[in-house]
């Protein structure tokens, strides 16, 4: 397997002399702001809520603009692009992102600090970064002191199948205050090949329609009991997804239920 650094070196060697000179000038200009940017990112990312909203905003933007992003980046005609090239392109594509946010995205992608990134891995990078923050942000003020019996060693499973090229079963220590939205984010960060936002979570495989965990609902609303963090209870939760290529019966069923509820409400208002 070729390392990111080897890919970056190969990409640079394939450039023309003129392109190398232009790239060198861009990188020199970019380096002047790096120290200030790193300090700004540290402040920006301190707040968990701010970071979570930032990831959600980029996720929503990418879901709507993925084809445009890939097409634009492919104009560089190579897989690995420099920091300056990535920043300039992303600034053109997404005017709503400020300089600090664009630099933050670059740092999420260039984890080995090699000076170049594989632009096609943006989506994977943001959810990997969120997953890492979940692990690191183990807030001491909220753990065993406030929630002594709310911890679960949860196994996440897809009940139907597990693709050979993308393992979908994993374990994670969570607490009963986790919401459906937080669980979805955790799944995306753990199953990095899951390039979809269409995820449904449910507590019983045989009764998925009745046990769907909605975004605002907490695990404490369901039939789960926790234990101490040092001795958590073990439990299983299920999820299913659609990659957009095949129909997912569960997603179709849930969406049909939501549509029926909306139709009933409209009918009630008219009468």
Oligomer: single chain
Biggest sheet: strand arrangement: 4-3-6-5
Largest sheet: 4 strands, mixed
- Helix-and-strand structural type: alpha+beta
**How many strand elements?**
6
Shape: globular
User: Which band does the percent of strand residues land in?
Assistant: 5-15%
**Would you list the SSEs in sequence order as H and E?**
HHHEHHEHEEHEEH
Helices, by number, come to 8
- What low-confidence regions span 5 or more consecutive residues with pLDDT below 50? 139-146, 243-255
The span between the termini is: 65 Å
Report on this model:
InterPro entries: EF-hand-dom_pair (IPR011992). This is EF-hand domain-containing protein. It comes from Protopolystoma xenopodis. Helix 2 (17-46) packs across helix 5 (99-109), helix 3 (48-73) packs antiparallel against helix 6 (122-136) and helix 6 crosses helix 7. The strands form two sheets. A four-stranded mixed sheet has the order 4-3-6-5. Strands 1-2 form a two-stranded antiparallel sheet. It is built from eight helices and six strands. The relative contact order is 0.10. By secondary structure, it is α+β, with helices and mostly antiparallel strands. The longest helix has 30 residues, at 17-46. The chain starts with a helix and ends with a helix. Residues 139-146 and 243-255 have low confidence and may be disordered. It has helices at 4-13, 17-46, 48-73, 83-93, 99-109, 122-136, 180-190, 249-270; strands spanning 80-82, 116-118, 151-157, 170-175, 199-202, 233-241. It has two domains: 4-130, no CATH class; 145-246, Roll (Ubiquitin-like (UB roll)).
